Amino acid sequence: MSTRPSPISATVDFDAEGVQHGFLKLPISVDESAWGAVMIPITVVANGEGPTALLTGGNHGDEYEGITALLKLASSLKAEDVRGRVIIVPMMNVPAAEAGKRTSPLDGGNLNRSFPGDPNGGVTSQIADYFSRVLVPMCDVALDLHSGGRTLDIVPFAAAHRLDDLAQEDASLAGAIAFGAPYAMMMFELDATRLYDTAVESQGKIFVTTELGGGGTSTPQSLAVTERGVHRFLVHYGLLAGKPSESDEAAPAEPMTYLDMPDASCYVQSEHAGLLELTVALGDTVAHGDVIARVYDMTRTGAEPVVYHAERDGVLIARRFPAKVGMGDTIAVIAEVVESLARASSHGGETDAPLSPRAE
Ligand SMILES: [Zn+2]
Q: Can you tell me the mean pLDDT for 42-52?
């Protein structure tokens, strides 16, 4: 891979104190703009010594809970409230967000399948490369806000992954629990190779991801969980000085449920095209063998639907959002309810010591 510097330039000074609003500028040359740039909004809030948090949304452009929460935070966060540095990018894949789509209309790129990226690749790959080589190395902790987007609806959870470095895994899991969503998850990815998650974790950083609703919209409930979670994440890692806000004092509405996704059998994918009827709702408990969905042939009457059964005991944590379903679409995800997310050999998961302050 080339090692030339990223073509992206920042209009903010990452070493300056105070609040800065600016852009990451990615040169493009298109019919409408010969010497143009993709302009990715960024806010940096810095105040003295302390850790650096990197907060991101819009990795997928149709996941509005994170985008909305971070646009609000970027406009409201004051330097005197911060200890260290908070870098906020509400829309990592801004062309996708502007188009209201998961992927970029410029090159079809799915940013979260484009890491570690390439400075000589397409727009999406160049964005990934900038994060991999410039922004992620600056941070100590990273929070990436996802939700289901237009095709999925997902129960609100924050998640960590199993990592080779147990201390890193424990510290990440503690942040996922501190986020305070109704669910905390040890997440199994279908293919982690090209995820932002993996790019961050491979640099030894503490990383928390989330899923916070979906359907290509947001609700008062999903936004409340998201905004409170971001605040609690920053408090947990020592980024916010002073008093907790009222949102931090509001505990999660119900006791947090711990979820594990042991393997790929958690994902139920359609082997038929047609009209989807989910027979269980998000958050419902299901048992192995239960009917969870039927898919109807829309080309004729009188045909029996195809019936899908749960392949494990657990909770329905994600569902396909549109009723029309195609071959290979994920129609349901079933996760296992567990007592603890700590490994059997580990005491971890509940530590909440803030990071030690770190000079730049
Ligand atoms: Zn996403």
A: 97
**How far is the centre of ligand 1, averaged over its atoms, from the C-alpha of 149 (Å)?**
7
- What is the pTM for the complete model shown? 0.92
Please report which confidence band the pLDDT of residue 359 belongs to, taking 50, 70 and 90 as the band edges: very low
Ligand 1 geometric centre to CA of 59 (Å): 6
pLDDT averaged over the chain? Answer: 92
Residue 60 alpha carbon to ligand 1 centre in Å: 5
**How high is the pLDDT of residue 350?**
44
Query: How many angstroms does the Cα of residue 63 sit away from the middle of ligand 1?
Result: 6
User: Which range among 108-112, 136-140, 188-192 shows the weakest confidence by mean pLDDT?
Assistant: 188-192
Lowest mean pLDDT among 62-66, 188-192, 290-294, 332-336: 188-192
d(CA 155, CA 213): 6
Ligand 1 centroid distance, CA of 222 (Å): 15
Task: Tell how far the Cα of 92 is from the centroid of ligand 1, in angstroms.
Answer: 11
pLDDT band at 50 (very low <50, low <70, confident <90, very high): very high
CA of 148 to the centre of ligand 1 (A): 6
- Would you place residue 251 in the very low, low, confident or very high pLDDT band (cuts 50, 70, 90)? low
Q: 287 C-alpha vs ligand 1 centroid, how far in Å?
A: 28
Q: How far is the CA of 147 from the centre of ligand 1 (A)?
A: 6
- Say how many Å lie between the CA of residue 261 and the centre of ligand 1: 17
Residues surrounding ion ligand 1 at CB below 5 Å: 60, 63, 146
